[in-house]
Design brief:
The protein has a domain of 197 residues: 3-Layer(aba) Sandwich (Rossmann fold). The protein is 43% helix and 17% strand. Strands 3-2-1-4-5-6-10 form a seven-stranded parallel sheet, sandwiched between helices. The protein has a three-stranded mixed sheet with strand order 7-9-11. Strands 8-12 form a two-stranded parallel ribbon. Helix 1 packs across helix 7. The longest helix is centred in the N-terminal third of the chain and has 21 residues. The chain binds nicotinamide-adenine-dinucleotide and 2'deoxy-thymidine-5'-diphospho-alpha-D-glucose. Nicotinamide-adenine-dinucleotide (NAD) binds next to helix 1, strand 2, helix 4, strand 5 and strand 7.
């Protein structure tokens, strides 16, 4: 199989490229190399690389030439950045998805859309996990743009008969995650003795999904999933403050670094999804967040300063100041 992986230089996409390449599949990557894209993530991995924008039909036509399937990871992905400026999110996550779908439609190939549990919005503490038919109630410009991408996928299936499907994954963690996201931000700050900015009361709940389990799920859906189907990919639910305490334990950092700061506007309290449908298709997650998963991740960041130290300079510093300076005082 020859597969186009868009966003393959990012956190989850690069792990997916590695996974397919190790199985001997031929992988083509199309990536715009935004601040989150990093060629170093693909070092030593057999693949063909095109730098370009998924919203550019010519770039897509070139990269997708002769592929059997497209797996779309390319997106603007950070909720806080979407609050600062939503436009880029709509261009990539909605328009870019539509350009890829057009290619899949005209070439009769499969399109797998990598989406998120955030499209369901938050749910009450005592609510049952969302199944795939739950209504979409996105809260942030990020999740609204991802919902827009999902709706395009479903519209292409119904209107044109395009062979497309969707996975909706939970909060993913593991090596090579850009350190703007909660876990790598807190782990690397803890190593450096920097403050740990907890939004609001820190009682929000997320499901934590190891990046390898997430990639295994996407592969199962790609190979065995049905056209027009949606598959949730859940993880292990934990309260943010519990995760912070574990990070302090594992890094040996002082609890004095923890600061409760102004909350994220529109902050979702809880996500929880039911993954029965994907398990029935053959997905068996192998990682436990508490026994091994988080600890190995902390060790990876401890041993790979050469990966994250260059990232946490330059543009990142400007972003960090904009996002946290007023909050941290
Ligand atoms: P990331 O931010 O680490 O990487 C995104 C990649 O997409 C980068 O390499 C970037 O350069 C590329 N990109 C951005 N805009 C592009 C464009 N217009 N054209 C081509 N490439 C472009 O993201 P991630 O965390 O690896 O997430 C990958 C996908 O998985 C996204 O679609 C995201 O919505 C989804 N997802 C992420 C999580 C999570 O917790 N990280 C959970 C569920 C779903
Ligand atoms: O649920 C899947 C989604 O998970 C993906 O679709 C997104 O791409 C990914 O960014 C992630 O979204 P979240 O908003 O849940 O992740 P984030 O890492 O930004 O935040 C996780 C939790 O930690 C959330 O409750 C906000 C909180 N947080 C985050 C940051 C960056 C803090 O308390 N302080 C922080 O500085």
């Amino acid at each position: 199989m020859r597969v186009l992986v868009t966003g393959g230089a990012g956190f989850i996409g690069s792990q997916f490229v590695r996974r397919l390449a190790l199985q001997g599949e031929r992988v083509v990557v199309l990536d715009k190399l935004t601040y989150a894209g990093n060629r170093a993530n693909l070092e030593g991995v057999d693949h063909e690389f095109f730098e370009g924008d998924i919203a550019d039909p010519a770039a897509v036509a070139q990269a997708a030439d002769g592929v059997d399937a497209i797996v779309n990871f390319a997106a603007e992905t950070h909720v806080d950045r979407s609050i600062m400026g939503p436009a880029e999110f709509i261009l990539t996550d909605v328009l870019g998805t539509q350009v890829l779908l057009d290619h899949a439609r005209h070439h009769g190939i499969r399109h797998l859309q990598v989406s998120t549990d955030e499209v369901y919005g938050d749910i009450d503490l005592d609510a049952a996990p969302c199944t795939e038919d739950a209504p979409l109630r996105p809260s942030s410009p990020y999740s609204a743009s991802k919902s827009g991408g999902d709706q395009q996928v479903l519209a292409y299936v119904r209107t044109y008969g395009t062979d497309a499907l969707i996975t909706r994954g939970a909060n993913t963690y593991g090596p090579r995650q850009y350190p703007e996201k909660f876990l790598p931000l807190f782990i690397t700050n803890a190593f450096d003795g920097e403050r740990l900015p907890v939004y609001g009361d820190g009682r929000q709940r997320r499901e934590w999904l190891h990046v390898e389990d997430h990639c295994a799920a996407i592969e199962v859906a790609l190979r065995n999933g049905g056209t027009g189907e949606v598959y949730n990919v859940g993880g292990q639910e934990r309260e943010n403050m519990d995760v912070v305490r574990r990070i302090l334990d594992l890094t040996g950092a002082s609890p004095d670094l923890v600061r409760h700061v102004a909350d994220r506007p529109g902050h979702d309290r809880r996500y929880s999804v039911d993954s029965t449908k994907l398990r029935d298709l053959g997905w068996t997650p192998g990682r436990s967040f508490d026994t091994g998963g988080l600890e190995e991740t902390v060790e990876w960041y401890r041993e790979h300063r050469e990966w994250w130290e260059p990232i946490k300079s330059g543009d990142y510093k400007r972003y960090y100041a904009q996002q946290y300076a007023a909050r941290l005082g």
